[in-house]
Every structure is written in structure tokens, then in C-alpha cells.
Protein 1
Amino acid sequence: MNHRERMLAALRFQQPDRVPRYASLAPAVAEMFRRETGLSDPAAYWDWDVAQVAFAPPEPPPDLGARYGRYYAELDSEWLLSWEHRDFPPEWGVATRPAHLYHLSAPVAPLRNLGSLAELEAYPWPDYLGEWRHDHLERDVARLHAAGHFVDAHIGWIFQTAWTLRTEVGLFVDMHDRPELAEALLARITAIRVAQAERLAAAGVDSISLNDDIGSQRGMILSPAMWRRWLAPRMAAVIQAVRRINPAILFRYHSDGDYRPVIPDLIRMGVSSLRTVQPEAMDLFAIKHQYGRQIALEGTIGLQGELMHGTPDDVRRMVRAQCQELMPGGGWLGAPGNTVTPDVPWENLAALFEALDRYGKYVA
């Protein structure tokens, strides 16, 4: 099987030749890979199965200071708003506050002082279809398909975009005290995500991915009722939009943490796979037993357990156990649940993919 055939089989609950795999590496880990292997492409080295396409930033990029600088004029703390620092999307006007820990940082919300719907309407929203470049998408997808790749496209966030613009506290206060502001903010964000998703679906991608962290390791960040009220209809609108263009397109959803109460909702709205099922927060094997024929599971390899603190043999045993329990019937992709950070030893990262090679093959 090639990469695309393997991914499509697994995501459609068929058994491929082996478990599909991929990972995301923090910049320091990518450098560690280059140092340890002498190579530059971890996807080729470990035979990862997912390729990405994306909108390209405008050329020349607009002056972010002129566009958004007034929203930070009163701040004297350290912050960055530039095309070179993309931990948070600068095209939305969200500045980055360096955290000085690995690649990590924190957002500075431009709409933290929002007071009215008029101010919200006046905000300079990003224009992905009019300003960003996307005429390359069909060519990129065709090239990757011809090479046997499965092609995914990530459209960003809805909930996270809202709170990085408004602050978490500000968004939750709006939901309770000024729902018209929360409605207008989420509607504007959703319309932009729908437009992005429709354009990518028309370009022929195999899957659309949306990230929206709604879980912590002790439960959901917002109640299931709040999620159903404020977020579920917006995500459903994105899924419905892309399926009108291509009914077969797959929709992959990421959240960290424990979001078990809404998994049935995600299945009903048409989510194809959970891109992270975090073992520190949820019982992987129980999720597989309960939902394994309805929604595919990804990102089941935790970053806080064996991969970070164990030995290579511990990692191999963990991967073997996941292969034994999660492989049957397809519907599982072997991948870390989030970006691999530099506190994961090289030997453990290498052991992860060695173990997937050893234990992740299906019997013909």
C-alpha cells in the first residue's frame, strides 16, 4: 500500500498493511533529529503517512504593525507581532508573548478591551481568499497524490481563535453576560473557517483538520452544555460545508485532555477521527471498545509517560500494548498526541518508530 491507500483504509475501519504513523516535532527536536541522523527529513526517514498543504502568506506580507499596532499601544510588556513568529496567527492580529521555554509562548489578545459590536465590526479580519495565496493548492494536491501521499489541510481553530482574540476570561464573560458579542465573534470566525475549508476541499485534499482544545486532564474546559450551545453548531457548519463539495472528505478533530462527554456528539456531526486521545486523560482501550467502529483514533501515544520518562524498552512495551489493543479492525493511527518536545530523549523517540515497525504490521 502507498501512504494514501494506507491512511484511507485505516480511517475507513479497514485493516491496511501496517498502522499509519506521523508526528510533529518541536524545532529543537527537529534539530536533534538532524544531529543524530545527519538527515533533514524525518517524514521520509520514519516513513510518515500524512502530507500537508496550506494557504501561503501574502507577498509581500502586509505591515502588521500598521494593521494591528493600535490594539497594543498601551502595553509595555514584552510581545511580538510579526510574520516570523507564528506560534499564534499574526494574520489575526494575535501577538506572541515569549515564554522562554523551548518553542513555547503565550498569546496577547488584541480584543481584550472589546466593548461593542461596532468595535468588533471594525476589526481588521484576515482575508484568506482575497489576500493569501491559494492558486497553488490544486497543483500541490495533484503532485502529492501522484507520489502516493495522503493529503491533509489544517484550517486552524474556532474556540481557540476566539479566546486568543478576546482572552479566555473575556470570552466566557461574554458568553454569560454579553452573548451578542460572543455570538458575533464566533460567527465571524466560523465564516472564515468555512471559506478556508471550502477552498481546500475544492482543491481535492483527503482530509480537513480542525484543532480546538476543549479538554484538560481533569475534564472539559467548558461544560458539555456550553460546548453544545456555543461550539458544536459552528464545527458542524464547517463539516457540512466541505461535505457539500466532497461527501467523501474526512474531517479530523484535535483536542487535548478529557472530552469524553461529547464524543457521541462529534460522531453524530460527522467527525471522522479524534486526532488526539490523550492517555493521561482518557482510557484509550475503553474508547476503542466503545467507539472504535464509529470514529478513528489518533494521537494515542502520550508525551508525559513512557515517551518522556521511560526507557526505550518501556516505550516499546507501551507501543506493543497499543498495537495489540487498537489495531484490530483498523481505525487507528500511531502518533504522539501533540508536538514532541525536547524533554523526550532521542532514544525514546527512535524506539517509538522502531516499535511501530515491529508490532504495527497487519497479517495478510
Protein 2
Amino acid sequence: MLRESGRPRPYAHSRPLEVVELELAGPGPGEILVRIGAAGLCHSDLSVIDGSRPRPLPMVLGHEAAGEVVETGAGVEGLSPGDHVVLTFVPACGACGPCRAGRPALCEPGAAANKAGSLFSGAHRWNEDGRVVNHHLGVSAFADHVVASEHSAVRVPESLPFEVAALFGCAVLTGVGAVVNAAAARPGDRVVVFGLGGVGLAALLGATLAGAERVIAVDVVPSKLELARSLGATAVAGDDPDLVAAIRTLTDGGAEVVIEAVGDERVLADAYASTARGGTTVTVGLPDPSKMLSIPALSLTADERTLKGSYLGSSVPDRDIPKLVAHFLDGALPVDRLLTHRIVLDQINEGFDRLADGDAVRQAIVF
């Protein structure tokens, strides 16, 4: 549980996340009780810990997870005790404007519930000595059991290990979705990925899956560049003083698809500058809300360039997660290679130090 944001690093000393015992009410109508098998550590959690994305506190963090349904509330259809599920961080109502338009990642009631720190129903199921504790993005995965909306869960095969299944709820859905959904990458495209965390490397895998001719991976951590090469990157770029020029050389003048997965407005500017005429720049990073981006306005028209954001990989989780899991099981999407550390709950603060330092791709708490 996180009681306050902004404690200094290293988190191994300041201990912003406490391992505590809370009371968890059972599932209400349309909700499920899930025994968590594994939960991933993501920069979206880190941004709450360091205070760059304020959330109502206290809060049980974690939003990338997989587990087993233990109990269902009244009216739940399609899920039963014993089902294995991936939890996603936007509960989609299916009835609001964005949902009806096929864009459940922008679900309006889901976004409102996430901002309020509640479940989709508006309820809070956590409490500590009678005091409300908030939910994180409708999931709160850093716990051995959680209550979530049925709209936050997608059933997956029982053969899928929980620590691998968890990655499909955020890293894989976001990264692969940015390439195949938001950018609509086509066979033969040149693709550049800035930032090789879990989401960025998933985007690299998505580019390979989409049939990209060249995939350029960009990061400042040598070990991540090595991993990118082993996952299909045709070239890598690091801390080059003239990075954009180097990338444009590697791509013969720019890439059709460029993915920014860092969450830094300066990196996003470089990503846009690395995009070819007629190309698409997609950002999935979450910069500090105060940061601004400046680009040459004329380029949008004269070069027919596209700059767009992608949340949850612009995906439809019920449609996309089963497809992506099938690609993994077929060997075409080796997302298990993104999992660099398996830890236990008591090691969570050290895990976020590792994430902040860039020493991990994806870490999973295995319960």
C-alpha cells in the first residue's frame, strides 16, 4: 500500500510501499474476486510513487496482473470460479460514445472510476480499520487477492503461466497495440522504437510480427540494446550526440512508424523528427503533465505526417488479448523474453529502484 507519494530514492531505504494486511469486501454485482498469481511492475505505478501522476491515497498499487477467479458477484456472465484471467486497467462499459465507436481504452465511466480510485461500480472494497483504501486503475494488483469489475478481466488459457499472462494486461497490449492498432504498421515498413522497457520491447516484437523490413531500437542501456537485437532489431542506437541524424541514416531518410515509449517530451520530439514524410509517430509514454511539446507545424500538412497518442495500445482487450496469447503460444510473439526478474512481494521497493534505474525490462511479483 502507498500512503504518500514523493518519498526520496532509493526506495529500498524510504520504503514508500508497505506490505500490510487489509480487509477486502467480497465482490458486488458485476464484480469478481481474483486470487492474483503474478503482477508486473510498470512505470505507470512508478509515476504514482514518485508523485508525477497524483492519485487519491492511500492506495493499493498495481495494474498489470493475472490470476484465478475465486468468486463471482451477482449478474456476472462469461466468467466462473476457476477461470484464469488477465486484468486490464481500463474497465470498459460498452455503452458510452468511445466504447460504441470501438475505442474501449477511452471508456468515459471507466476513466472516471480510475481517476476516483474506485472500482467501475463506484464502490471501494478495500479498507484498513474501517478507513477506505483506494483502488489503482480498477485492479490494485500488488495483493494476493483483489476485487475487480468483470469488465477488467479477459479469460486466458490455463496453460499460460501467470507471470507471462500478466504481461498481456499492459506491456504487451500497449506495445504491440501501438504498432498494429494505432500505427497500422504494414509489411515492409521501417519502424523505430524509442525506449526499451517492457512496452518498448513489446512494440519491437509487434513490429516484427507485422512484417517490418527494418526495426531500429533506441535506448541508452547497452543490455537492453543487446536484448533488442536478440528479439529481432535490425539495428540499434544509443546515446548518440546526433541521434536523429543517425536514425534517419539507418532508415534512409526516416521511418514509416516511430514509437515513443519513454514518456519524455524531448524523446518524443526526437521520435517525431525521425519519422518519414507520410509516416506516423505514436506515443505511449506518460510524461509529467506540465511538460509541453513543440514541433514544426508545417510538417503536419506539407509532409502528411501523423502524430498520435495510444492508450492501452488503442486496443479492444476482449478481441486483442486472445489473439496475442495465440501468437505467443505459436512462438511468433516471445513475450516471456521481456520478463527479466521474478520477485516476491517483500522485494517490491527494491524492484521499483531497479525499474527507475533502468536495470530491468519487466519484473513480476509471483504470489
Protein 3
Amino acid sequence: MTTRRGEAGALDRIAVLFIHGVEIRDPHYAQNATNVLRTEYRRACRISESAPQLEVEAAYWIPVVADGLDKVAQRAFGNRFAGWTRRLDALVHRVDNGSFLAMLPLLASGLLWRVPGLPNVHWPTLRWAFTYFVGDLVAYQDAEDTDGNYQAIHGCIDDALAKLAERAPQAPLCVIAHSLGTVIASDHFYDLQQNKPAFPTAVQRGETLTFLYTLGSPIALWMVRYPSFDKPVRLPGRDDQRPEIRAAAQWVNFYDPDDIVGYPLKSLNDEYRRAVDRDQAIRLGPILARTPVSHVEYFNSRRIMRPIAERLARLATDIPQSRRGRRRFRAPR
């Protein structure tokens, strides 16, 4: 399918890719975030008779490493600990879908030294967090120089981009990535730009990457592992022939000061200072939830999705009238 256009090449599609971070056990993790983004996009485009359609896809890479981590946890601490982790995963699932109330038992469980039925596991919730959150990081990085997890994880990103390309092969691409997903996104599009693989569409080749939003990003820590890796991923949209694309292109790094995983990026070096438009400090969730657990709240924050949607809407409002299609605005699907 080719991207449909109005008169003189007016934009008809914007491709949006979500990339999750650690310990997400739900292929629909971005459903709530997608709904919020679309709602805010419709609001921002309300005065436009013609607006690009949002085509959204969520990459889901956790199955690549989940089985291995489950085996480690079960063999080390038994089936009952596996049951405990499933209950915690269920709470995270509720948080992913916008439930602040689910954070309360999650926070409370982290204070428990012992739990009845788990005599061999001290601090079981902290053990779960270390096993799965840090385990995902280890599983991703240690396989980088092999054909193991690194390639398989990036294969999941390729698959998601291929699905987007079926609906919007030439569309400007917006990537919204969280936590370890920001590192995966950075690696993925950097590799595409360096290796130039022969994918059939511009979206799959990363040639239309125009918007990058990193949420709670630990990219700064990867500078320690790769001290000579001082060239951040580039946004090809900054060099697009269409002035409205160049004007809208943006990389914003959102981080909550209470989130111990998220770091500013512009101060890393001169390359990042030029590549990142803004480090945006933002408070997530209610006051009582302002702890390091705020790391799981980025996708659900309207305070994040609203400015993203408004930036995407610039492609509806900044396109000169003579270049817009004649159709009336349709709500994104």
C-alpha cells in the first residue's frame, strides 16, 4: 500500500512507533498511551480541515528475554516466587493501563522483608525488580556481539516498522521510547544510518525519522560502556525537502527528577547538545507516588502525550493551504 496524498503531495500519514522498556509483559502495553495521544492529537487538530492520519504500532521485544529470566528466577527460588512475580507483573500491567491505585500495593510490597510462603526469598519485590529490570539490561547488552538477544530484539523493531510501512511507507516517523527502549531505539536507528540495509521502504530504513521522544532514558549510562561513542542518532527529518517537516522535527528527552533511571542528555557532550532539542523535567503521577517508581508512569502521562501530539499537529497546521488535500479531517483510527 502506498501513502495516499492530497494535492501537490500534502501529507496524509504520520507513523508512530512505541518502544517499551524493561519488564513489560503485555503486548498491548501502549494501548492507553495511544488513546491519550490520539485524543490530544484530535484536540490539537480541531481547527484543521485536513490533517495527517496517525498510524500507530507498538514494538514488543520482551519475549526475546522473558523465558530465560523466568528460568533463572524459578530455578533459584522455586515456583512460589514465580507466582509472586506474576502478581507483581499484573500490578505493572494495571499501571501501564493508567491505574495510579495499582502503584500503592506495588510500593507497599517493596517494603516487605519476608512474605509468608516465600521463606527463601528476602525482600521478594526488590528481588523481582533486580532480577527482571536489571536482567533485561544484561540480556540485551551481553548479546550485542553475537547473533543472540541483540539481533533478535532489533528484529522485533524491524517487524514493527514493517507493519507501519504497510500503511505508511513514506510517512514522517515519530518514535516514542521508554527506559531501555530508548537505548534500543538509539541503537536501532544508529545502526540503520550506518549500515544502510536494503529494506523496501523509507520508514523501514529509518529515512523518515522526524520525531524522537525519549522517556526516562538511561542512554547517559551507555556513554560509560562506549566512551568513544559520541555521535547520537540523527533525525533525517531535519534535512527533509519539505519546510514543514524540517520545522517540526524534534528530539525531546523527558525525565522525572524522582526517576533514578532517567538522565538529562544535552549535557553529555557537544554532539548530544546539538542533537537533543530539550531535556524536559516533568513531574509524573500524584504527589504520594513521586518516588523512583515514577519510572513506570511516562507512557500514561497526558503531560507528555499532549506536547507530543501538539508537535505532530504542526504538520496539519503548518502545511500551506495550497498543498493540503480537499478532504475534511477524519479522526485517527
